[in-house]
Amino acid sequence: MTRASASPTGVDAAILDYNGVLGLQPRLDQWQHLARTANWPEHDLSGFKDAVWSARPAYDAGQLSDMAYWAKVLGAHPGPRLLRQLRTADTDMWTTTDDRVLAVLDRAHDNGLPLFLLSNAPLHLSDVLDATDWCRRLMTRDFYSARLQTNKPDPASYRHALTATGARDPRRVLFVDDRADNCQAAQILGLRTLHYTGRIADLEAALLPIPG
User: Fold this and answer.
1) Three-state secondary structure of 2-35
2) Which of 94, 170, 183, 203 could form a Cys-Cys staple with 193, CB 3.0–4.6 A?
3) Statement: the pTM of the whole predicted model exceeds 0.90
4) For the chain, which residues score pLDDT lower than 50?
5) What is the pLDDT of residue 10?
């Protein structure tokens, strides 16, 4: 359910991306660890990233199993032990959160603002994020591409989350994402958007009442 129309921020619910908003981008050492785990040539981290990202949309959309995804990245099927190591290293890359963002969301939650997560993420990572303290504490509902079988910026992704907010007017729902194309797709559906670039003041202004 949404809040009353007298919301001091003009927003009755917020739909938030995970990576690049709540989640920090992977560090160089994390990429290097994943590449070493994959037995990728040490001098070709760029090539490794290209292989990871080229297969990622289908993986995030739930169209590839863990095994099929890593087989595409590596060009050969990993054994069960290596697959577990790769999945662990990959998941570790995407589970570091931004304490500043969580602090803002805690305040917004305490003010009664319903928060919804909408993330492009594979099944295993979805399960891990679901089990985190912050997700259980802050999110009214969470939506992941692998479960929806579609990635942002497909309009169907947004419609699932927007319907869950119960909002009658999409203009009173704020969508926050670090990618401009995802925000543009949300705007087409009528949502208010914040293209988040790491400026915590922008998030505070969008989600929190002005003191006074």
Assistant:
1) CCCCCCCCCCCEEEECCECCCECCCCHHHHHHHH
2) 183
3) yes
4) 1-6
5) 83
